[in-house]
Amino acid sequence: MTRWTEPAYAKINLSLDVLSRRPDGYHELRMVMQSVSLCDTVTLTLGEADRLTLSTNLGFLPVDGKNIAVAAAQAFARRTGVNLDRLAIRIDKRIPVCAGTAGGSSDGAAVLRGLNRLFETGLTARELAEIGEAVGSDVPYCVLGGTALAEGRGEVLTPLPPLEPCHLVLCKPAFAISTPELYQAIDGIRLRCRPDTAGLLRALEARDLDGAARRMFNVFEQALPPKRRAAVEEIKNTLIQHGALGACMSGSGPTVFGLFRDQDAAQEAARVLKSSYADTFLCQPV
Ligand code: C5P
Fold first, then answer.
1. pTM of the entire structure?
2. Catalytic option among 17, 40, 107, 138
3. To test the ligand 1 pocket, which listed residue (21, 31, 137, 155) has its Cβ within 8 A of the most ligand atoms?
4. In the chain, what percentage of residues exceed pLDDT 90?
5. Nearest CA, atom 21, ligand 1
6. Is 40 one of the catalytic residues?
């Protein structure tokens, strides 16, 4: 085989709790993750080239080891001993960049899954996730996908019952939030509210979509600068006014998502938000 194409699905956080700061500078997390149908496409080709190359449809992205996709390929080569000199990675991006939806991590995870197929190295998903740990905190989850509880740095994964079929509207306002700065900000405040993670897990177990949507909560919203928080609140309000069962920021933001039972309501919310926010997407859980 000389070519393999892998979808790289975006993720949202149905909940995100920061429990403590660790001695290594990372934070102990408890998050409920969900992959969604919005995706990049990662194509791996073994050709005539004499070195590993990366190309994308976005000119401003790094194409060296600073790109998670290249870092993931290098980590895979270290673990398996395969030679990547003839490998060309192509990424067609649709997931917004720096959005809190794991676009980069998902590309890295797709590279790991794809290389495992291309080189027929026979690693299990868990083994690929372990390789991903060194590449980024969200990469192990992105290797597995679906609905999962992520703990520790993000790498301690427990699969959960899938979210009931529903419609999701993702909306990214046109500003970026620095993830390390947001972690720093959260270290400096006392969190007044925390997610009911146990209740969310029970709702997923009971296939209770309303109960799950009601418990969606992200502690990072409390650590946003006031102007950013107001922008996030405004999108959440629009989603709720259009019939979302719940709305929440994903990851370290700024993407906000709403969860809808009704497809027409989701379509209308997406139409309204799209007129103010170009990065608005209608998708489903996968
Ligand atoms: O692992 P990753 O490179 O994706 O993390 C980006 C940044 O997010 C880290 O440098 C750290 O500041 C922060 N982080 C954290 N605790 C985690 C995950 C990420 O503090 N569990």
1. 0.96
2. 138
3. 137
4. 98
5. 153
6. no
